[in-house]
Each structure stands twice: as structure tokens, then as C-alpha cells.
Amino acid sequence: MLDTIVKVRTLYCPLKGARRAASTLGSGRAQLLQKKHDDIVITFAKRTAMGRARKGQLKDVPIDELLCRLFKATLEKTKLNPASIDDICVGTCHPPSPLYVSRAAALAAGIPDSVPISTVNRLCSSGLMAIRSIAHSIRAGEISLGVAVGVESMSLNPRPTPVVVDTVGASAQAHDCIQPMGWTSEMVAQTYNISRQKQDEYALISHTRAAKALADGVFAEEILPIELRGTVVSTDDTIRPNVSAEGLATLKPSFPDWGTASTTAGNASGVGDGAALCILTTRARAEAEGYNVIAKFVGAAVVGVEPRHMGIAPIYAIPKVLAQAGLGKRDIDVYEINEAFASQFAYCVEQLKIPIDRINPNGGSIALTHPLGMTGVRQVVTGLEELRRRNGELLCTSMCIGSGMGAAGIFVNEQRW
User: Fold this and answer.
1) What sign does the dihedral 302-96-270-134 (CA atoms) show?
2) Could you tell me whether strands 394-401 and 405-413 are parallel, antiparallel, or unpaired per DSSP bridges?
């Protein structure tokens, strides 16, 4: 494992041109660590256990049932008066009528009809966009306490095939933006010469770290157990122990007709189900009402990139959000960067020149799975728990987004010794 990490760390190469970060250390860290009454803070951040799509523990659970149980478990755990919630935003991608089922789930969980709800879909960043939406509403003074959720059932609501009219599809970029995500993985591997061997090396790091974290009980600290149909769901069933380099090398290409045919089931993110949730408010309200502050939301950034190379978007989203916050890459203690595919993840790590020991310390989506709407919140939950264990201060989370976009966010850990 360590040999693999050392090998990976020798592969970094610098960013080029105007996209290059001006410095590795920023001037805004000390300011961000100051506590102000109008800070937007997180008082609760947990996730459900995740399930393997079509085979796992959540394969028959629709998102209204999953959301309802998560809302109920959250209210029971926090003792939050549901009438005190000013707004809810749910990030999700593919269920039919997502607003209706999210609203129904909230009502069934005992959240009063006076509490409004919305949904947001920016594909893989939907959960982060839900956090941003609630945070921006608080910052604007429209609300003072809200709930951000990310949820997806890829078992029951797989990605629909996008269809555009011929006049739109005649545009090369329009054509590229609706292609399967596996195709974009192969385009990145082909364009940037990301070999199958390199992809498997990064995948092995993810699998090995996740298996160790599971064995050590690390994920139990971020999972909120929920009762579903008489069974308590509290452990991920997505992580595969004992993954080896030899085993990864034997896997057949998942997309043999595209590009270099180097993407496999072992070096791509899993397809899965799950939900995650954050409660946000102002520091002033948290202190006045005795809520435990665990983190501060700093800000988020969204970028666009060439659709066929959508996976490289964190290369641009991370420097953008760091610049907004007055930070450099070395200011960040933990990065959670979504591993949609090892092809794009490897290229992002090497271009960003971030030490691999700071990125996805407990594995990423290649090992854990990637329920699209959930991931943006799940990475925040996971990253904040890791910061707490390390007594670290700053988290940066980022992901590529289908159709050719990327997003990133910055959070401050306040669970320090």
C-alpha cells in the first residue's frame, strides 16, 4: 500500500497557464478560523449507511421512504423542534417528481406543513448544491435554520438516457454532454494518457483505505442508523475487502468499444443508494439555543469544462473556491474529491499536486459507491469526521459533474480538542 502511494506521488505535474494557483499558502486562513455571530454553521451532519445498487440493503427502498426514516432519525437524535426549521433543500437527480416525494417524506416524518421544501439537481454535486442553497438563504437573511439533504436510489431510479432533438445534437459539445459517463472516462484516459495500470493503482488506494476504515469502525462515527421495515441499517454493504492489484488487473473493460477501454468495475465508482443530511443555522442562533456547532460553511464554487472531459473539473473548481476564500492548497487539511472514475481522479490529483495522504483518507467513491444526489453531502459528513479525528481545521470537497461541470466547497471544523 505505501509503495503504491509513493509511486503515485511521483506522478504529479504542474497546472498550466492561467489556471495555475498563484501560491500554495493563502492569506485567509486566520480570518476564516475567527468565530463571528453571523457565521453559517453546521450543527448536525450524518449519513445513512449505503447500499449496493440492485443488490444491496437499500435496493427496494424508494427515496421517499429513505428520506422519511432519515428525517425521523435526525429529529430523534437532535431533539430539534421540527417547527423551528425554516426551509429544507433536497439534492437528488433521477427520481420522478422529486419535489412531491420529498415533501411527502418530510410530512410523514412529522415535519409540519408550515415548513417548505425544495429540490435541486446539479447531478453529482446536487448534495453540495443543497448545502449551498440553504447557506445562501441564511446569508441573505431569508431564513435562520435550514436542512440540506442529498439522496439517491440508483437501484430504483437509474440514470435515464438523455435525448435531444437533431438540431441540438448537431452541436459537437451538445452531443458530448449527453453521452454516458463511462464514455467521458475513456475520453479522459485517452486524451491525457492515463494508463490502465495507473488507474488500478489509484483504485487500489481507495479500496484499501475503505476496507481498513470499515474494519476499524471509522464509518460508524458518521452513520446515523435508521430503521427500515423492521431492520436497523447501520453499516455500508458496498465496500469490498481484500481487493488486490492482481485482482484489479484481471477485470475486463466495462466499455470495450470506447477510447482505450481501460475503465473497469474495479476502478470506477460504484452505483449505489443512500442519503445524507446537514442542519445549518447562524452561529448566533446556535449559541442562543444551545446547538452544538461542529463546522462552519465558508463557500462554494461551480465551474464548467469541456463536456467530453467532464471528469477533470476539480482541477478548476478547487483553485476557484480556494481563491474565493483567500486560501492556498497547503492550507487544507483534508480533501474529499469524488472518485467518479480512476481515470479522472488520477489526472486531477496529479495536476493539482496535492499529497495523496490528504485526499480521501478513508477511500472514495471507487470503494464506497457514488449515489449521485447523496455524494455532495456525504463527502462533507465524511470529511468533517476525519478532520475531527485529526484535530484538523479545513476541509475542501470537490466533484466533477455530468455534462461538463465541477464544484467545490470549503468548510471549517469546529470539533477541535
Assistant:
1) positive
2) antiparallel
How far is Cα 397 from Cα 205, in angstroms, rounded to an integer? 18
DSSP 81-106: -GGG--EEEEE-SSSSSHHHHHHHHH
CB 29 within 8 A of CB 327: yes
Instruction: Using alpha carbons, list the distances in angstroms from residue 112 to 11, 43, 117, 120, 263.
Output: 54, 21, 11, 21, 47
* 400 belongs to the catalytic site: yes
Q: Among 312, 232, 309, 282, which Cα is nearest to 58's? A: 232
Choose among 266, 275, 365: nearest CA to 58.
275
Q: Is 124 considered catalytic here?
A: yes
Instruction: Give the fold, CATH level 3, of 1-6+27-407.
Output: Peroxisomal Thiolase; Chain A, domain 1 (3.40.47)
Is 207 considered catalytic here? no
Helix (H) / strand (E) containing 119: strand 117-120
Q: Which of 126, 190, 121 is nearest to 162 (CA)?
A: 121
Please tell me the number of Cα atoms within 13 Å of 248 on its side-chain side.
27
Domain assignments of the chain as residue spans, ordered by start: 1-6+27-407
Mean pLDDT of 79-87: 98
8-state DSSP, 292? P
* pLDDT 10s digits, 107-141: 999 999 999 999 999 999 999 999 999 999 999 99
Catalytic residue, chosen from 68, 93, 124, 396, is 124
CA distances from 389 to 222, 413, 416 (A): 12, 11, 9
Angle at 413 between CA 401 and CA 235, to 5 degrees: 65
User: Residue 60 and residue 104: Cα distance in Å, rounded?
Assistant: 18
What tens digit of pLDDT does each residue of 220-245 get? 999 999 999 999 999 999 999 999 99
SS3 414: coil
CB under 8 A, 24+ apart: contacts of 285-292: 285/144, 285/145, 286/41, 286/43, 287/37, 291/43, 292/43, 292/44
Judged by DSSP in three states, 223 sits in strand
Burial 307-318 (b: 16+ CB within 10 A, else e): bbbbbbbbbbbb
Residue 148: enclosing H or E segment and its boundaries?
strand 145-153
The C-alpha cell that represents 373 in the structure block: 444526489
Alpha helix (H) residue ranges in 216-282: 245-250
The three cell numbers locating residue 315 = 482541477
Q: What is the predicted pLDDT for the residue at 42? A: 98
